[in-house]
Amino acid sequence: MNEHARHPIVRATVEIPIGRMMMTTDGEALTELCLEDWWWAPSEAFQGLDADDTDNADDADAGNADTSDADTDAAEVFRQTRAWLEAYFAGERPELDAAPPLNPHGTPFQREVWDLVAEIPYGQTVSYGELAAELAERRGGGRMAAQAVGGAVKRNPITIIVPCHRVVGAGRHFGGYGGRLDVKAELLEHEGVDLGRFDLHTVG
Predict the structure, then answer these.
(1) What does the pLDDT look like over 72-91, one tens digit per residue?
(2) Catalytic positions, please?
(3) How would CATH label the architecture of 108-197?
(4) Close Cβ partners of 198 (under 8 Å, ≥ 6 residues apart)
């Protein structure tokens, strides 16, 4: 997940088996992918956007000579995203390299955590504490608070592709999710995770 130069932000929606999602791109990479009722998703961003519609979020650039090229680039990012999601929900286990380039906007620490989350294999879960320990080890030792890692996971702007639903609490704790816990459960069940090991009424 690399940084890219800023371009007009374009957004679109896509219908998937668990609901409607919003995608945004800077024309070079996917910057957001979230469910309609994601906790931080602005509801107005979905207004006027039907499935497969796109919208240029920066009207100031309308009429710019490069607009058609930008729209073409955005369409390719959205095409790759839709293809990845279709493969995922068909049970094909698409790899991260089959997704479009990713450019989630966040702090350096958040991006470190999201990079780790992106490595969690299909059908497996990792606890916040395990993520914190792995991050601390990659930084050369020391301690890392699971709570800080959890806060970064909660703010992951590219869901499913960066699989924050695979991050759970310790023991039988299911952990939280930026959308709904039933969605998290549905995604993990889709991947073959045994939900019987969790208390689905616990968060944290």
Answers:
(1) 889 999 999 999 999 999 99
(2) 164
(3) Orthogonal Bundle (1.10)
(4) 168, 172, 173, 174
